[in-house]
Amino acid sequence: MTTINLPLDGKIVPYTLTGTPIELKKRDAKAFPRIAFAAAHVVADPLADNDPWLTPAIDWERTLAFRHRLWDLGLGVAEAMDTAQRGMGLGWPEARDLIRRALAEAAERKDALIACGAGTDHLSPGPDVTVDTIIRAYEEQIETVEAAGGRIILMASRALAVAAKGPDDYVRVYDRILRQVKEPVIIHWLGEMFDPALEGYWGNGDHLKAMETCLQVIEANRTKVDGIKISLLSKEKEVIMRRQLPKAVRMYTGDDFNYAELIAGDEEGHSDALLGIFDAIAPAASAALDALGRKSNHDFFDLLEPTVPLSRHIFKAPTRFYKTGVVFLAYLNGLQDHFVMVGGQQSTRSLTHLAELFRLADKARVLTDPELATARMRQVLAVHGVH
Fold first, then answer.
1. Alpha-carbon gap, residue 77 to 116, rounded angstroms
2. Nearest Cα residue to 196 out of 223, 172, 162
3. Which of 7, 112, 225, 243 falls between 20 and 30 A from 106, CA-CA?
4. Nearest to 340 by CA among 82, 85, 14
5. For 144, how many CA atoms within 13 A lie in the half-sphere containing its CB?
6. Cβ neighbours of 51 (radius 10 Å)
7. What's the chain's average pLDDT?
């Protein structure tokens, strides 16, 4: 067994790996009883001569190869979402390029499930941005995605959160946009724990009251809404909303704290999935969904429950920095050759945080090659002065 010295509570403590990696196996999404999207990260280009905080540089080959890995495992790709650092290093010009490239890759396969984020992030919120301006911004991004043959994930708008005077402005914007879309969309309600600029979304700081407005929009446009993803990190609120959705509208869990039980569901229903953590734990998610398809709930929880402590650690407050943990795990697993992120975001978590991530990933069996992961962890430790 491999042992590595890791920081813990201000000391350097030996840790011996015990996890047996989950087998990587190609699967078909059609065998899964749930629709499951992984919100995918982007791989930065560490050799680019750029200013990382200001100018994104993307390794397109590795970025697109990662999407093929998700498809091979039977998972869908939620493209150009917050996991791809949308609004935290990745601007609309880069997101637009990413969407077009990913859709072109998906078109070459018969099994590629993909949906793409369309929002208003090319607007800078301010007093000169009106509701009509926001509608036009949504229309511009939607047109780009649809012109490339993509489905829409309708992202929450920071600009709308500033410009809206109340719930009626949200209803006006969403009604206008949903009437125009070519195919049913997934509405994305991202909570303020993921993005503080979205506090009070739907015109109310009380999530349950905000939910009423969102449900009103969905009910009025039920033929244009495939589902809604809520990321409020509250299983209780998700279940409350799930039980009030029109029959044909799906709930896509965005709860990176409680996804296992929400996907499994109860006697009154279940959630599908659109999760950032599925980027990091794709082999476990794939195997667990396969087990659920075989009606083996025991195997489903046996595979997925050990990943929950890892996910809760990666998504701990400040939750918006979770992308660092996702990319770090991709580095440990050999899916990219470096721990560099767009916007220099690799600096948002401490060495102690990354060390605990390593331990939890081992326990969750998502270190696909423990020897490689250990060697790479040692390199990161050395950079921080731990030998």
1. 8
2. 162
3. 225
4. 85
5. 23
6. 9
7. 97
Query: Which of these, 304, 343, 305, 349, lies nearest to 329 by C-alpha position?
Result: 349
> Could you tell me if 329 and 366 are in contact, meaning their C-beta atoms sit under 8 angstroms apart?
yes
Q: For position 5, what pLDDT does the model report?
A: 97
Q: Which two tokens stand for residue 344?
A: 């220099």
Strand ranges (DSSP E) for 150-299?
152-154, 185-190, 225-231, 250-253, 272-275
Q: Which of 124, 125, 189, 193 is nearest to 156 (CA)?
A: 189
Give yes or no for a contact between 185 and 151, defined as CB atoms under 8 angstroms apart: yes
- Return the structure tokens found at 266: 């109860």
DSSP per-residue letters across 284-326: HHHHHHHHHHTT-HHHHHHHHTTHHHHHHHHTPSSGGGHHHHH
pLDDT mean over 236-256: 97
The pLDDT confidence band at residue 125, using thresholds 50, 70 and 90, is: confident
Q: What percent of the chain has pLDDT over 90?
A: 98
- In percent, the amount of the chain with pLDDT more than 70 equals 100
What backbone torsions phi and psi does residue 386 show, to the nearest 5 degrees? -105, 120
pLDDT digits (tens, 9 = 90+) for 261-273: 999 999 999 999 9
26, 73 in Cβ contact below 8 A? Answer: yes
The Cα 184–Cα 254 span in angstroms is 19
For 77, phi then psi, to 5°, come to: -110, 120
Given a cut of 90, whether residue 126 has pLDDT beyond it is no
Which candidate, 159, 149, 152, places its Cα nearest to that of 187?
A: 152
Q: d(Cα 141, Cα 123) in Å, to the nearest integer?
A: 11
